[in-house]
């Protein structure tokens, strides 16, 4: 198939409010422990009047401008989030309205920290088939609204959103794309309350089941096992080796986990882009935010081979190889 998808523009946005590690003394943690184990120095927290679509819309506008397009040029919007503005309609509909992308179809996807990668794969297939030409993929979450700040594990997450515009190319673009799911891990990272299984009641609220929960041991064990495997599969599909990769743009789960994943993948740390020190884990926003930052910093050169990798709730994980096609 000669028609392939590529990234032609990126954008990101994080809220202005910053929460430092000292805040977590209240739950028995410390700045030193968080930095040593997770690499996090601070995270951004959404304002009371900011919804996920507000973050996503601001990132989207930047991505569309960076691509040299106008909102009316966008054919499709896919929003990856697990903190939608409302249960329905899709947060993508709110973004479509806010950025005035009047010609765009819009829908959401939910795969938590793998969300942006899963959404980008769908965008790729729409483009390869010729159904759409310009697809806006947004990933973003406001985790602060679903976090119990009295728990020690509240240290992990922050708020933010990123976006990318994908379009068609006949040279370069994506060389491989691999995704996987294991529903046996469906409870490893989850929000028990609020869905059809456990509707919101006063008892659910009293037990704080409307906040996220994570089995840290299971997530760490599985992530460091499956992500190196799928990275190897993506490299093999692209007919390249780790030595050919110029830059890795991974999900930002924490320093220790990411180091283990890269070590097992035999990828040198100096090829790995990170920003968890500034933003912590922004879930669906992690990959597009680091993508936008590296692009705007000039770290990506035309022709570079870029490796994407992520792991999220579900459990879900993915990897992809892209030949960068934007002139810096």
Number of strands: 13
CATH class of the largest domain: Alpha Beta
Architecture per CATH nomenclature, i.e. the level-2 architecture of the largest domain: 3-Layer(aba) Sandwich
* Number of structurally distinct domains: 2
Characterise this structure.
The structure is a single chain. The protein folds into two domains: 168 residues, Thiolase/Chalcone synthase (Peroxisomal Thiolase, Chain A, domain 1), CATH 3.40.47.10; 149 residues, Peroxisomal Thiolase, Chain A, domain 1. It has nine helices and 13 strands. The chain is globular, with a radius of gyration of 19 Å.
Secondary structure topology:
Layout: E1 4-13, E2 17-20, H1 31-38, E3 42-45, H2 52-66, E4 76-80, H3 91-99, E5 105-109, H4 115-128, E6 135-142, E7 159-169, E8 173-181, E9 189-190, H5 202-206, E10 213-214, H6 216-237, E11 247-250, H7 255-264, H8 276-279, H9 286-296, E12 305-312, E13 316-323
Parallel strand pairs: 4-5, 4-6, 11-12
Antiparallel strand pairs: 1-7, 2-3, 6-7, 8-13, 9-10, 12-13
């Amino acid at each position: 198939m000669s028609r392939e998808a590529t990234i032609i523009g990126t954008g990101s946005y994080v809220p202005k409010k910053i929460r430092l590690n000292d805040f977590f003394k209240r739950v028995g943690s410390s700045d030193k422990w968080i930095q040593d184990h997770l690499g996090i120095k601070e995270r951004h927290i959404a304002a009371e009047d900011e919804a996920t679509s507000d973050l996503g819309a601001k990132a989207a506008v930047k991505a569309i401008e960076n691509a040299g397009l106008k909102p009316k040029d966008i054919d499709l919007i896919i929003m990856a989030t697990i903190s939608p503005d409302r249960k329905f309609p899709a947060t993508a509909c709110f973004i479509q309205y806010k950025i005035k992308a009047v010609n765009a179809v819009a829908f959401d996807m939910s795969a938590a920290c793998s969300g942006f990668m899963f959404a980008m794969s769908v965008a790729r297939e729409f483009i390869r088939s010729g159904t759409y030409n310009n697809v806006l993929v947004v990933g973003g979450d406001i985790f602060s609204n679903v976090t119990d700040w009295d728990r020690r594990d509240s240290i992990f997450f922050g708020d933010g959103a990123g976006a990318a515009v994908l379009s068609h190319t006949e040279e370069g673009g994506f060389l491989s794309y691999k995704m996987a799911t294991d529903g046996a891990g469906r409870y490893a990272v989850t929000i028990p309350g609020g869905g059809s299984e456990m509707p919101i009641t006063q008892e659910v609220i009293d037990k704080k089941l409307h906040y996220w929960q994570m089995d840290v041991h299971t997530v760490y064990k599985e992530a460091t096992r499956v992500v190196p495997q799928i990275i190897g599969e993506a490299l093999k599909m692209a007919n390249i080796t780790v030595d050919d990769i110029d830059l890795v743009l991974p999900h930002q789960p924490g320093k220790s986990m990411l180091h283990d994943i890269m070590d097992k993948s035999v990828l040198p740390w100096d090829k790995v882009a990170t920003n968890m020190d500034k933003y912590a884990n922004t879930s669906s926003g992690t990959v597009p935010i680091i993508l936008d930052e590296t692009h705007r910093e000039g770290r990506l050169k035309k022709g570079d081979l870029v490796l994407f990798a992520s792991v999220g709730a579900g459990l879900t994980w993915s990897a992809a190889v892209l030949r960068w096609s934007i002139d810096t």
